[in-house]
Amino acid sequence: MAVDTAHPAGAVAGSGSPILPGALKDAFLTGLIALGLLGPLVGFETVVIDGALGLAYRPLVVAIMVGIIVAGRLILNLTVWSPNRPPKAQAGSSPVARGILAISPAFKPALLAFAVGFPFFATLMTGGLSESRYLIDLGILILTYVMLGWGLNIVVGLAGLLDLGYVAFYAVGAYTYALLATSAPVNDFFAAILGETFWANWAFWFCLPAAGAFAGLWGMILGFPVLRLRGDYLAIVTLAFGEIIRLVLINWVDFTGGGAGIASIPRATFFGIPFTAGEDGFAALFGLEFSPMHRLIFLYFVILALALITAFTTVRLRRLPVGRAWEALREDEIACRSLGLNTTNVKLSAFATGAMFGGFAGCFFAVRAGFVSPESFTFDISAMILAIVVLGGMGSQIGVAVAAAVMMGGMEMLRNLGFLKQIFGDGFDPSLYRMLLFGFAMVAIMIWKPRGLVSSRDPTIYLKEKKAVSGSLVKEGHG
Amino acid sequence: MSDNALPIHGWDKDPILTVEHLFMRFGGLVAVNDLSFRVGRGDITALIGPNGAGKTTVFNCITGFYKPSEGRLILGHGRAPTAEELDAVTLNGERGLSSSDAGVYLLERMPDYKVSGEAKVARTFQNIRLFSGMTVLENLMVAQHNALMTASGYSLKGLLGLPSWTTAQKDATERAKYWLDKVGLTERADDPAGDLPYGAQRRLEIARAMCSGPILLCLDEPAAGLNPRESLELNELLRAIRAEHGTSILLIEHDMSVVMEISDHVVVLDYGTKISDGTPEAVKHDPRVVAAYLGVDEDAVEAVEAVLDEATGAQS
């Protein structure tokens, strides 16, 4: 749009002739539009005057913003959009693209090495175990979303089935662990056979597979009613499914504890050794000085391992008939059926596999937080995971990982916008603009990379030479 | 064409597919109206007719994409089923019966994916349906899904990378390579299917259907959009498929050079009913076919009707 309107202004002037008048006119018009929009939107501020709500006006802020827009437009018109500028050669790839291509083989190992070494870097950077708590917490959060993104990627990216209720499986996994680990009968059962503390110490390791299996089962239960649905209808029903799970969790108070949730869930242990300051605790047994950070770092490696298992399994499954069937389903369902593929099974296996990884992540969430409540499983989480998958490039592993890091890390970084106070004054609270900036970033990515960060598809088998399939040929699926 | 002298044709003696009183109604519209014909084992059978005659509807009924309103579609594996076998299957409500030497399937009772997977009827589409974002080789691997799925132990053996799975995958690749050679696409095996030129996409679709190991191959306008040279190559390919694999072929086609050149048997449809059935030679000279295809002058209508009346009068 912007380019379209900018060119006629300069084109009249012709090549080599002064373009300033056109650019000025364009900038002036843009300024008028910006004034019209920002005048009421930014200009008015609600204030409390003597206990009553009133309006104050902030002409200075509006003036600054409009000034930035006019100046920016003028500079762009004179430089980037200028008709006198030699046209960019389209044939050759840009140096940036070539650079990315050159480092891409090393990218994955480097990323993996960074993920493995992250707790050490964080400790070194912040100068102490306790001080690195914020960074490691952030790392755990990002890795949880990487894992959720990879799980949803199976359903949305590979099988092409739009699932807006993925958080349901996250919730199923979390509640599976929360309920089993705090269950008195289960505890009594193990206490009678294997000792008092057995269940509290081992609950996570027993519940992890159970949570995955149970979430997978729920994935199939969701899969059955939506088999015949496509596109928008599929999206709405999966969205409803996510909400149903949450509402059941809220309202089935006897079983789930309702809105209050379930607290004091047993913490993770180092394969049966608790992270306590006591004699048989982790620190004492390994001859370390006790620190609550040990548990957190251990959790970091647990989620890293879970995420890597997810990635490894997905990569393997893609090269198996079931994975190819998922992708074939995304490409053309009717052709699949004409080749003898039972599309019911293909869809259910995709839903179940995706849900299973969601369940693992949910189980991990419960053990990390030590507390679950329906508040943690709102639609926002589904939307966030879906955004990660779409931004990363549907079907791409590395793209999803980068997108998760950018989205979750970026959201956190945007909390630290203190320097903006120097521009807009002390009354300015930058964290309020977090979502706005975030939205701008997403729009920008969708403009320049409409198919996600990694849009090309990796073939699963080849005869002579592995060639990436261009994103423009790959279909998004019908759901 | 000495068949003309004999009233009993090959397709009557050993049909691989028998269509009996097929009806397909969409609301008030009768797309296929009491259609019966046979497809001979090892024959190339052409289903022709003007646009909108109901050919593709018949195809969709045979391959399970539509459930016929009425009628029976009998597919015989190995040999034509005997009347007793047929009665047994029809009455007990099963989809099919198979013994060591023969099998009989009632296609109208089977869902689409079983028609392909169990009854071994493969099809192609009028508007090509390839997995365009997957490579040529991947397309052929998907076609062997059912066999590979079993070989991969429903993904369990495959995830562990057991040797039995690796061997099965290798065999499947060999089979894909064989068909790539057949259709001349070996060079492009690693290119996305959506990047191929139109004629190559048509050939790839046939290769993909053949990779599923069918005994009956249904082709919906395989020569549409091909130039004369490509049509000729297609004829060669279809002949080779029949000669080397014993696959029977049923095809819908408008290109008469293909139809008359390669088919053993032609069935002509118009407005959902069969108007002619016989060898290409016989069909070509059938006045009803000529009338349906070329149309007739106002004056000629009566003349043709007179001929038709005579013909039907002579029969009855």
Molecular structure report:
The complex is a heterodimer of chains A (479) and B (316). With 479 residues, chain A is mostly helical. Chain A has two domains: 2-78, no CATH class; 104-413, no CATH class. Chain A is built from 19 helices and four strands. Chain A has helices at 2-13, 20-43, 59-78, 95-126, 133-158, 167-181, 184-194, 198-226, 231-251, 253-256, 282-285, 293-318, 321-331, 333-338, 343-369, 379-392, 397-413, 420-424, 434-448, and strands spanning 44-49, 52-57, 269-270, 273-274. In chain A, the strands form two sheets. A two-stranded antiparallel sheet of chain A has the order 1-2. Chain A has a two-stranded antiparallel ribbon with strand order 3-4. In chain A, helix 1 (2-13) packs antiparallel against helix 2 and helix 5 packs across helix 13. The radius of gyration of chain A is 27 Å and the shape is globular. With 316 residues, chain B is an alpha/beta fold. Chain B has three domains: 1-120 and 214-285, 3-Layer(aba) Sandwich (Rossmann fold); 131-212, no CATH class; 291-316, no CATH class. Helices cover 44% and strands 22% of the residues of chain B. Chain B is built from 14 helices and eleven strands. Chain B has helices at residues 10-13, 55-62, 83-92, 112-117, 136-143, 145-151, 156-160, 163-183, 198-211, 228-245, 256-262, 280-284, 287-294, 298-315; strands at 15-26, 29-40, 44-48, 70-77, 96-98, 103-106, 121-123, 216-220, 248-252, 265-270, 273-278. In chain B, strand 5 and strand 6 (103-106) form a beta hairpin. In chain B, helix 10 (228-245) packs parallel to helix 11 (256-262). In chain B, 45% of the residues are buried. The model of chain B is unreliable at 1-5 (pLDDT under 50). Chains A and B meet through helix 12, helix 13 and helix 14 of A and helix 4, helix 5, helix 6 and helix 8 of B.
